[in-house]
Amino acid sequence: MRKDPFSQSSKLEPEPSRSTEAVRGLTRRRFVSGGASLGVLAAAPAFLRGLRASAQEGPSSLFTLGVASGEPHAHSVVLWTRLAPDPLAGGGLGERVVPVKWQIALDPGMSRVIRDGVAPAHPKNGHAVHALASGLPPDRWLYFRFHALGEVSRIGRTRTFPAQRGGRDHMRFAVVSCQSFPDGFYRAYADLNEQELDFVVHVGDYIYEGAAAVRPFDPARNHIGSEIVSALDYRNRYALYRLDPDLQEAHARFPFIVTPDDHEVDNNYAGETPELSSPTQGEAFLARRRNAYQVYAESMPLRPENRRAREDGGLRLFRSLPFGDLAQLHVLDTRQFRSDQPAGDGFGSTDPDSAALQVVFGEEIFDADGILDPAATLMGARQEDWLRGSLAGSRATWNVLAQQVMQTRWNLVGAARVTIEQSTALGPELKQFLLQQIALVDEISNVDAWDGYPAARQRLFDSLVQSRARNPIVLTGDIHSAWGANLLADFSDPASQIVAAEFVSTSISSTFGGLDPRPTHGFVRGGLQPGNPHIAYFNGLYRGYCLCDVDRTRWQTTFRAVGTPAQAIDPSPTALVPLPTSPVETDAVLEIAAGFNEPGRNGRLETTFARPIPV
Predict the structure, then answer these.
(1) Which of 333, 432, 452, 419 has its CA nearest to residue 383?
(2) Domain locations in the chain?
(3) Which of 69, 80, 73 is nearest to 321 (CA)?
(4) Which of 108, 294, 341, 492 has the greatest CB tally within 10 Å of its CB?
């Protein structure tokens, strides 16, 4: 019997690959990003060397970007690859159309092929290949590969989901987000690849759009060229990320369910509105947006209906996937259809006393009209209606909302106070004035998240309650830090009825406020209480991901963290940058019992800390 290429003993050792992004300061727009300026990390890459294909001697020169799968249903799954002999220069196949044979089998040796077919690799799609393999047995691990131009890809592993009736009583999956190539190595993926998972959910910021850094923290991990705008630019950027062996291995091992956030297009963009500092505005931005979504569709293992461009060049990415009757995954899109952010896309407040704080934030704060606008939306009317119907029709034990930005109420007044108290740039008189002023302010919000759209959040909460959807769980990314929160009907009342529970995955690699996350972590942690009693867990120190273990009786999320408490007190500013050799440990485990949102139950998250959090 051939050894399973996905057994732990047969996995190739990961080798580091390349990348980085431009240095960024700490404004609200860059609160969770941040530059790097040191070039001292070890392990220079041979990043173009592919993983050894199981079916041939030596690396493939054609399948350099590996293989992937996604969108599993009970009887079908999407298979993906891209032909790219010159991956960082457009792919290298010119204008030729290449027929690509695909096979899917019951065994890792590919001796029991149950479905096969031929799909074209076309230059208009960057020679990406999508094959919808259908007629498959439910709830089954399967293996697949591609053949083209005399070469054979490595073997990938995928699975189908259980049938909706008589399905499984258990699932285990990972939640990942925010993987800026320049900000560190993908040590989190290396750890994820050793887990027993059914699938991976990626909630956005798969790539970052910025230019190469002038002074990257490691020359081996830098973006290439200027900020990306054209379809060719986006293809080369996805190729750079996909050349990372740990990311490539994750795609080969597990089916992915994906949804984009902002950086797949442009930082903090909203609908058809770019960021104020974006190099593309007006029609130029709309063209860039079309390019970005075209290449996102090319690069992700999406079904045909989710890859088909709308008239404006966007995609319909909101959709639902059932994991038997155990869970219904409602995948949301909070970027393409949203209203522009209020308060100039900075921190915002509905309290008039906050206007005096604009001197320290350097941007508009008070914008009650914008924040409280009843017409403001993150999802758009059509998606809101769809979700309402999807929730009402669900009979699953768990209803999972996979989406981008934090839904929980996060009052930043305490964090602003700590920031002012610890500032060394403010004179004593100005500091005293600001501390007196902050004491008058009731609330400050991050308006790029659902806090900037409270009317839209209320509509969502109303849908959850009125649909009587069982056990709603919200999965989030975006903010490069780990959180767990009880989503309450009334955040001002800690005893209020719980509507859902939210788990926010920290980033795979993207920085939290800067290369050294400790200052930002300190400001946030120091100001969380007493103003946010519904937040059960926060840690901004570490990169990592979430492991979700789910059965009929409880949901358990384990927060895996790259780095240790000992490293968190190391004085080096690069102590917490994820390296190929960084340790990965469990930081905390959060659990909630099924039935938590039933009338009269009003359950809450229970948090178990696996190790201390340094102050």
Answers:
(1) 333
(2) 8-339+375-410+449-609
(3) 73
(4) 341
Determine the residue type at 352: P
Are 410 and 31 in contact, with CB atoms under 8 Å apart?
Answer: no
For residues 176 and 546, give the distance between their C-alpha atoms in angstroms, rounded to a whole number: 7
Conformational region of residue 296, where left means phi above 0, alpha means psi within -120 to 50, and beta covers everything else:
alpha
Q: Phi/psi zone of residue 451: left (φ > 0), alpha (ψ -120 to 50 degrees), beta?
A: alpha
Instruction: Give 3-state DSSP helix, strand, coil % of the chain, rounded to 5.
Output: 25, 25, 55
- Specify the residue for token string 């570490």: 542
Task: Give the pTM.
Answer: 0.91
Decide: 295 and 235 in contact? Cβ < 8 Å. yes
Q: What is the pLDDT of residue 55?
A: 34
Which secondary structure element, helix H or strand E, spans residue 591, and what is its range? strand 584-593
Contact by Cβ (8 Å): 138, 75: yes
Q: What are phi and psi of 562, to 5 degrees?
A: -90, 110
Q: What angle do CA 371, 375, 378 make, to 5 degrees?
A: 75
DSSP for residue 471: S
Q: What is the mean pLDDT of residues 152-171?
A: 93
Selection from 188, 112, 179 nearest residue 143 by Cα = 112
Rg of the chain over Cα atoms, rounded to whole angstroms, equals 23
Q: Any idea what the Cα angle at residue 542 is, between residues 538 and 546, rounded to 5°?
A: 70
Task: State the Cα–Cα distance between residues 32 and 23, nearest whole angstrom.
Answer: 12
Phi-psi group of 91: left, alpha or beta (phi > 0 → left; psi -120 to 50 → alpha; rest → beta): left
The domain 8-339+375-410+449-609 belongs to what CATH superfamily? Alkaline phosphatase D (PhoD) (3.60.21.70)
Residue corresponding to tokens 């103003």: 531
Is residue 405 within 8 A of residue 448, CB to CB? The reply is yes
- pLDDT exceeds 60 at position 370: yes
Nearest CA to 453 out of 340, 332, 351, 346 is that of 340
Handedness of CA 540, 542, 544, 545 (dihedral sign): negative
Contact present, 281 and 265 (Cβ < 8 Å): no
Phi, psi angles (nearest 5°) of residue 551: -135, -165
Q: How far apart are CA 469 and CA 490, in angstroms?
A: 19
Closest C-alpha to 519, from 418, 374, 406, 398:
418
> Is residue 427 scored above 70 in pLDDT?
yes
User: Residue 60 has what pLDDT?
Assistant: 74
Residue of 12, 264, 41, 290 whose CA lies nearest to 154:
12
Q: What is the mean pLDDT of residues 435-451?
A: 95
